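Letters spell out the chain; backbone shape is given numerically. Take this protein:
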Amino acid sequence: MSRTDENRERLRSAGLRVTNPRLAVLTELTRGGHPTVDALADAVRARLGSVSTQAVYDVLAVLVETGMARTIEPAGSARRYEARVADNHHHLVCRTCGQVEDVDCATGEAPCLVPSDTHGFTVEEAEVTWWGTCAACAADSAVRQRGVPEVVEG
């Protein structure tokens, strides 16, 4: 079964009508990564032609509401969306380029971290974001610091 067919079934199983914009957004999300609305809108337009950014926002709202997608909002970054929702994973964010990568649960079981004081809360989930520099940006920075000219292929 193709990814598109699987997503068509996922939409139906969630009680949602299968529309081209919903199917295109969900298919793009299930490709992985953490796209912004603008990146998703561009990808959906490449698939379908004319689709408004508002339509993409509307689809994302429905997907988040039904638990088929979730948002992450790294500080200083645009809201991003992902289809990995069945676990309590965390994220690494590059301070230089904004790349976001998934990191499995810190201790192996949700909620992954136990607070020193729950203040009477029942903890269900933890959101952890580690900030740093991705390998590509670190390598680029090292090249610039050494003053070595970059090799441009092409």
User: Anything to note?
Assistant: The two ends are 39 Å apart (CA to CA).
